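sry for the spam today, last one i promise. struct tokens for design, 181 residues
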């Protein structure tokens, strides 16, 4: 059971930033102490959606947050619902940094965001290709999937090297199925 102060901190919220950018998110602070520095401002841990491209600007300050869960939420949140054909320069740079993060999940999430995004800047494809040699298989799978979505032929050989989806990893069946269809 969650402690009372944590229970109050977990739930749906809507953050309104300057300029009217609204972020709908689920804030989940887990077992963070109420008085810890990480608890000093609202931290979107699992960003669900934001329907305004200006919301990316609201996520940028969290891209270097000390908590990997927050950085992962930022990586997943960039570009969500965006109708823009490309990431802004600052978002693209933040995603490139997040793709080199020390945390595996953050690298994977940033790679998935880039792969599923509409931005076809060659620097993004090169960053995904660099993740084909990542030490974590799930990051490699995300890179193969992203390159396939970008119609980059490097995904074919990388998918062969990975072999069939691993049992118990449904996301591998989904992501690797993209290349094998």
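last one done:
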């Amino acid at each position: 059971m969650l402690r009372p102060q944590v229970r109050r901190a977990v739930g749906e919220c809507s953050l309104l930033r300057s300029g009217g950018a609204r972020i709908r998110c689920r804030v989940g602070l887990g077992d963070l102490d109420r008085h810890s520095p990480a608890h000093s401002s609202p931290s979107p841990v699992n960003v669900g959606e934001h329907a305004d491209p200006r919301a990316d600007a609201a996520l940028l300050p969290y891209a270097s947050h000390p908590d990997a869960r927050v950085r992962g939420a930022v990586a997943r949140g960039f570009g969500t619902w965006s109708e823009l054909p490309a990431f802004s320069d600052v978002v693209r740079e933040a995603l490139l940094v997040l793709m080199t993060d020390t945390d595996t999940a953050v690298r994977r999430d940033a790679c998935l965001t880039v792969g599923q995004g509409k931005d076809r800047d060659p620097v993004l494809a090169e960053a995904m290709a660099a993740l084909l040699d990542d030490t974590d298989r799930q990051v490699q799978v995300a890179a193969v999937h992203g390159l396939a979505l970008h119609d980059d032929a490097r995904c074919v050989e990388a998918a062969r090297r990975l072999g069939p989806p691993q049992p118990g990893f449904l996301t591998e069946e989904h992501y690797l199925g993209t290349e094998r269809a």
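The two ends are 45 Å apart (CA to CA). ok im logging off now
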